[in-house]
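Supplementary Note 3. Input sequence used for the single-chain structure prediction.
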Amino acid sequence: MPAFEYSALDAGGKTRKGVIESDSARGARSLLREQGLAPLTIEAVASETLSASGKSSFASRFQTLNPTELALFTRQISTLIAAGLPIDAALGGIIRQTETPRIRRIITAVRAKVVEGMSFAQGLAAFPRAFNDLYRATVAAGEESGHLPAVLERLADYTEGRQATTQKVQMALFYPAL
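The predicted structure, written as discrete structure tokens, is reproduced below.
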């Protein structure tokens, strides 16, 4: 069943935000009204990279992040989670800041899986070309051990170091061509 992210006013006039499952946006509005909430906004959580069943589509398996994008994403998620934000809120913040539609689609799909109740590592597993086995296993170990912020910090250092090394090697190979 599709999930919808909403913001609504309660009887006291306070804004409430959350996720609700319904067949349609109209159904989600009805459910919110039944709960005594006045819907302000309703947006589908699932992106075009997810099929109706919630499983990743064939095309999503081939979407990738280049090393620079992966290093930046890892540093951003590491910093936000270390600051105490829940994973879904951290991913939402990154989505809002990301300008590249391809990256936004990948992160939105990962966030949709997290909102649906899957672990962060399981959400990343829908994109094996963007997040390699080592990356996913490291995140899973951090989740299992309860030390996700520290693990993500080290993973961010690793991805940035790997990116820097790759750039140095490329420049060293390019230099003789001049």
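DSSP finds seven helices and three strands in the chain. The mean pLDDT is 85.
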